[in-house]
Amino acid sequence: MMTKLFLIPIVFIFGLLVGSFLNSVIYRIKNNQKIVFDRSKCPHCGHTLNWFDLIPFLSFVFLKGKCRYCQKPISWQYPLVELFTALIFILPLVAPNNFLPHNIFLPNFWQFFCYYILIVSVLIVIFVFDLKYYLIPDKILFLGILISVLFNVLLFREALINKIFGALLFSSFFLFQYLLSKGKWIGLGDVKLGALLGFILGWKLSLVNLFLSYLIGAIISIGLITLKKKTLKSEIPFGPILIIGFFVSFLWGNEIILWYFNLFS
Ligand SMILES: [Zn+2]
Fold first, then answer.
1. How far is the centre of ligand 1, averaged over its atoms, from the C-alpha of 25 (Å)?
2. Average pLDDT of 182-203?
3. 102: CA distance to ligand 1 center in Å?
4. What is the Cα 90 distance to its own chain's centre?
5. What per-residue confidence (pLDDT) applies to 234?
6. Ligand 1: distance of its center to the CA of 20 in Å?
């Protein structure tokens, strides 16, 4: 346990840096720019930012959320994505789970952790993009599918049939609703996202993810209606809710299944 804990500060700082990169990926996908590791610019005045402007989170606090050069406000999205990326990165190190092996000196610890970091990064981009623009970019979805196929099939030697069945189960459930409602209940992006999440999870955990997402969706809807922020008919993007359900299922899905069946035994 001690060995895992000493990684926390390092992984947290790494998460802030990755979060900063993910913000620039979101910006570049939205503006149809190439995703390269060049210097970032202020979205308002186009001034190339210095290295000290790019220190995640802290620069936002010191500059009081304004650009150093044009004084225009910087979106809260930037520090929030940085902070949440860092927190989600350290989550499997601090919270007990069976996903990550205990011994950090085993090669499979690093294989699982790299896989987690890559998948989480892809899903954070999808989360923010869907929440902000009501759209899930295909590019980033395909990147997620590529990563999960490479890791699961080549490295982890997972049973491919379980993964494919998960993808089919998850996406066909949405495809059915998409066709039935002619795209009113659910978007085509959710169908594709379902295929990605289902492939990562396999069929059993896909069911947990679906169940949790509808539960979270219901809680959020009731909350918003009581606060009179939204009406029943107004659109809440389903992608971010699916992704929250995914994180829980990915890390603790098997424990949830065990807990559920123990209720009836
Ligand atoms: Zn500026």
1. 18
2. 92
3. 45
4. 14
5. 59
6. 17
**In Å, how far from its chain's centre is CA 238?**
13
At 45 the pLDDT is 82
Q: Chain centroid to CA 19: how far?
A: 11
SS3 state at 41: strand
Cα of 34 from ligand 1 centre, angstroms: 21
pLDDT of residue 235: 67
Phi, psi of 34 (to 5 degrees): -70, 145
Question: For a pLDDT cut of 90, what percent of the chain falls above it?
Answer: 53
Rounded CA gap, 82 and 22, in Å?
8
What pLDDT score was predicted for residue 233?
55
Q: What is the dihedral of CA 235, 165, 206, 199, to 10 degrees?
A: -80
Angle at CA 162, nearest 5°, toward 159 and 163?
90
> Which segments of the chain does DSSP mark as H helices, in order?
2-5, 8-30, 58-62, 77-94, 107-133, 138-149, 160-180, 188-226, 238-262
**Could you tell me the distance, in angstroms and rounded to a whole number, from the CA of residue 40 to the centre of ligand 1?**
11
Coil, strand or helix at 154: helix
User: If you measure from the C-alpha of residue 49 to the centroid of ligand 1, how many angstroms do you get, rounded to a whole number?
Assistant: 9
Say if CB 112 and CB 100 are below 8 A apart: yes
Beta carbons of 223 and 103 less than 8 angstroms apart:
no
Classified as helix, coil or strand, 7 is coil
Residue (of 148, 113, 111, 121) closest to 35 by Cα position:
121
How much distance in Å is there from the Cα of 156 to the middle of ligand 1?
Answer: 46
Question: Ligand 1 center to residue 52 CA distance, Å?
Answer: 14
Give, in order, the Cα–Cα distances in Å from 84 to each of 1, 12, 57. 23, 10, 11
- Looking at residue 230, what is its pLDDT? 63
Considering the entire predicted model, what is its pTM?
Answer: 0.89
